[in-house]
Amino acid sequence: MLNISDPKNDSKKLSVEDTSYRGMIYELPAGVIQVDTNGQILFVNKVMLELLGSPSEKATKTFNIFTLEPLKKAGISSLVKDSILNEKEFISELPYTTVWGKELYLRIRVKPEKDESGKVRGCIGTVEDISRRKQAEINLEQRVEMESLIAEVSSSFIGSESDELDLVISTALQSISKSIAA
């Protein structure tokens, strides 16, 4: 039986639990990242490696989240800094282009991580690729706009005299062309 009052046994137990939790976190379907107050990456899981386009956890740990250009450009670096400096949790959805040029839309949640004394020692973030959902939203908006335009054009035919029909058709085609071009 393990005596938890013995500090040596207690630390062994914690390290085993830590290892099993890290393994679980590594396999989660969302990206997970842990960063210190200087922006140094301490931990990333498998999905986060894929989102960053990084070859390995070891290579990723050499990055600084505050200086990595794609993260700065997307506003992710400032989101993390704000979370740490203001000791607040932030949730944001934003576009992100990987180092390899892949365009994604991400939902990011950043939460400060505090030590036993309550001092912020960094933050933990979760990242989800919501690109499909965002594309579906865009497609839906475009479809609603097109249906609205079709309804507007259709109603313009009602009550039109035959000599006005050429003008009505021409105006309708121009409206549809502008909508498609946008």
- What structural category characterises the helix and strand content? alpha+beta
What is the rounded Rg? 26 Å
| Run of helices and strands | HEEHHHHEEEHH
- Cα-to-Cα separation, first versus last residue: 70 Å
Number of helices: 7
Strand order of the largest sheet: 2-1-5-4-3
Total beta-strand segments: 5
Q: pLDDT average, as an integer?
A: 81
Cα shape: elongated
For the sheet with most strands, the description reads: 5 strands, antiparallel
Give the helix proportion (percent range).
40-55%
Q: Low-confidence stretches at least 5 residues in length (pLDDT < 50)? A: 1-17
Share in β-strands: 15-25%
Describe the structure.
51% of the residues lie in helices and 22% in strands. It contains seven helices and five strands. Strands 2-1-5-4-3 form a five-stranded antiparallel beta sheet, sandwiched between helices. Strand 1 and strand 2 form a beta hairpin. Helix 6 runs antiparallel to helix 7. The N terminus is likely disordered.
Which short descriptors sum up this protein?
single chain, 182 residues, alpha+beta, five-stranded antiparallel sheet, 7 helices, 51% helix, elongated, disordered N terminus
Fold topology:
Elements: H1 7-26, E1 31-36, E2 41-44, H2 46-52, H3 57-60, H4 69-74, H5 76-86, E3 90-97, E4 103-114, E5 120-129, H6 131-157, H7 165-181
Antiparallel strand pairs: 1-2, 1-5, 3-4, 4-5
Helix pairs in contact: 6-7
